[in-house]
Each structure stands twice: as structure tokens, then as C-alpha cells.
Amino acid sequence: MRVSEICTSDVVCCTPHATAIDAARLMRHKHVGDVVVVSDPERDRVPLGVVTDRDIVIDVLGNERDASQTTVSQLMRSPLVIVNISDDASVVAERMSFHGVRRLPVVDEAGVLVGIVTLDDLLRSMMTDLQTLLSSQTKAQRREQATRR
To answer: Burial letters for 111-131: b for 16+ Cβ neighbours within 10 Å, e otherwise?
Structure first.
């Protein structure tokens, strides 16, 4: 399965100059757990980093930093790990595992942000495939039972 089939195209973005407060408000308003930091949210959406709700809690609140003075550029992880829209889901799984992340920005051939894929997206896709296989096995067993009576 391709990343294009499982990723979310409605990505919440902000600039590197946004504060932790700005990012938290965006997450709350959009009901998401992350924002992708991009060069220009309106036009040239080249991803620079990802900031999660956990980053804000651990790095800002946990260290008693001022959330109104801490920018997302100070919080975002580097180097940024991405996947291409045409990559296979197995590439997503490998990158998530290798880098220990649960979310990956998805880019097109020009490096422009087109989506985000999460561990939940990947698991949902795998579960669908497993349910299909299980259904196939169950049907085969029923067919065999019916023909051997």
C-alpha cells in the first residue's frame, strides 16, 4: 500500500517563528497532536520540522520555560524525517521504527508538504489487510467444510 492511500492531507502547519503557545492553540483548535513547521504555510510548504503536544509539555512546561517566548524552531526535532507520497507503507514502518517517531510529514517530488502519516494510520491500514486475510481464511474453511460433508 502506498503512503498516498493512508496519509492525511489536511496538515496543521505553522512557521518557525510561532511560539509554543501558538502551536498549542492550533493543536487545540484543530484537534490534533502535532504541527508541521514549514517555511511558508500559505505558499511554499517545505517542511522544516514537527512539534508535538508532548514536545510542548516535556520541553517547555517540564523545564519551566516561557511558552510565549519559546518558538517552535527551538522545539522541533532535527534532522527532519520525511516520506515521499509514492513510498510504500513498509518504508513508513521502517523509518518510524529506525527514528523512533510516530508521525512523518509526506512530501511530493518537489519536497512540498502534501500530508502527514501517523502510526495510527499505518496500524489501521495493517489491520484492514489482516482482517481481509482472516476473512479469506475463514471463507476457505467454510467452503472446505461444506464440500466434505
So the answer is: eebbbbbbeebbeebeeeeee
pLDDT at 116: 97
Determine the pLDDT at residue 41. Answer: 81
Q: Name the residue range of residue 13's domain.
A: 3-118
**Average pLDDT for runs of 10 along the chain of length 149:** 91 96 97 94 90 96 97 91 95 94 95 95 81 68 70
pLDDT the model gives residue 139: 63
133, part of any domain? no
In a domain, 30, yes or no: yes
First to last CA, the chain: 39
CATH of the domain at 87: 3.10.580.10
What order of strands is seen across the sheet that includes strand 113-118? Answer: 83-84, 103-107, 113-118
CA distance 74 to 17: 9
Q: 43-76 burial, b if ≥16 CB within 10 A, otherwise e?
A: eebebbbbbbeebbeebbeeeeeeeeebbbeebb
What are 117's strand-pairing partners? 104
